[in-house]
Amino acid sequence: MILRIGFWFGVLLAAVFVAHWGAERLANPLKKLRRQWGITAVAGGTLIGLASASPEIGTNTVSAIQGVSGIGLGNMLGANILSIPLMMTVAYVATRKQNLSDDTSKSEQSSSGRADTAHNNHEQHRHERLLQVNQSAVTVLALPYLGIITLVAILTIPKPWRGLQPIDGTIMFLAYLIYAGQALVRGRQEGESVEWSAKEIGLAVAGVGALAVGAYFTVRATENLASLFGISNVIAGLFITATMSTTPEVFATWAVTRSGQVTSGATGVLTDNAVTMTLAFVPLALVTVTITDFQLYWVNLVFVAVMPIIYSTFLYWSQDESGFARWQVLVFILVYLGYVGVMLFGVLNI
């Protein structure tokens, strides 16, 4: 029994990393498109989100095809609850590095004067225990993401049309196009010339294949773990798949933030979540998912909304320098622990 659990956890971990390896192969081409089209770092997150959320899209697609859509539903909700507290914590810890530049990598700085100013600003933020984030993330990313969550609630909670249905998938696909479109239009600037290599294109194709393989084994491993633990597919998706699927994103957030791209590192989670709640929603809706445990569903959807509400409130009302103080990052953690408590003792009645 223990050996089988260990084996499938190993398969799950390997599958998640294979899927995210594939996603990373897509990330660089999308970054180049952002530069070529003249899209700002904040708005460009909508493109990067396609790569970072592609493992979730793949997992939901496979779970729908395999007839275990509960895994995809649990993963979609659970990952969107855990990701913001986790990534904000990782980004905050990463910015405690003494010689980190201020939201602009050294390669992007045009003069030593700018480099000195960026260094001094970061030292001030580090002393003030502040994770500096561009305030425009509230209107460009966070509030539109909250609009997406509201739309999901309208489509899936009312009793006459409770659940995920094909028409809902069509609506959410259109919602993503609107979300991405408004961010890209509002964040345009002059583009720059970029070069494309055959190797880059080949790796992107290999990445798509890795995503498919990783998604398949993610679902297979979760299905077997749910059976071994004697829990439902939804619960397995909420706490097993969702937790594991955020692991590679932790390393990505750490690397991006440590490189000096603080705003990109701290806002990427919003675009990832927006893609998860729209494009990753589609394959589940196409096969029709019935919500059998309504309390479990609405409680999770409430916490999915609570996280960006806190994010927007803290960032919008930040004082002289926009960002998140250490105590605010701790609030994210406490809210997630509160969610776990509500699930264990209020919903699952353990």
* Radius of gyration, CA atoms, in whole angstroms: 20 Å
Sheet bearing the most strands, described?
2 strands, antiparallel
Main CATH class: Mainly Alpha
The mean pLDDT is 83
Number of domains: 1
Structural class: mainly alpha
Gross morphology is globular
The CATH superfamily title: NCX, central ion-binding region
How large is the share of residues in beta strands? under 5%
What is the correct CATH architecture?
A: Up-down Bundle
Secondary-structure element series: HHHHHEHHHHHHHHEH
CATH topology: A middle domain of Talin 1
Strand order of the largest sheet: 1-2
Query: Low-confidence parts lasting 5 or more residues at pLDDT below 50?
Result: 102-120
What percent of the residues sit in helical stretches (DSSP H or I)? over 70%
Report the span from N to C terminus: 23 Å
Q: Can you count the beta strands?
A: 2
Number of helices: 14
Write up what this structure looks like:
The structure is a single chain. The chain has 350 residues and is mainly alpha-helical. It has a two-stranded antiparallel ribbon with strand order 1-2. It has 14 helices and two strands; from the N terminus they run H-H-H-H-H-E-H-H-H-H-H-H-H-H-E-H. It starts with a helix and ends with a helix. It has a single domain, classed as Up-down Bundle (A middle domain of Talin 1), CATH 1.20.1420.30. Helix 1 (2-37) runs antiparallel to helix 8 (198-229), helix 2 (41-52) packs across helix 11 and helix 6 packs antiparallel against helix 13 (294-316). The longest helix has 36 residues, at 2-37.
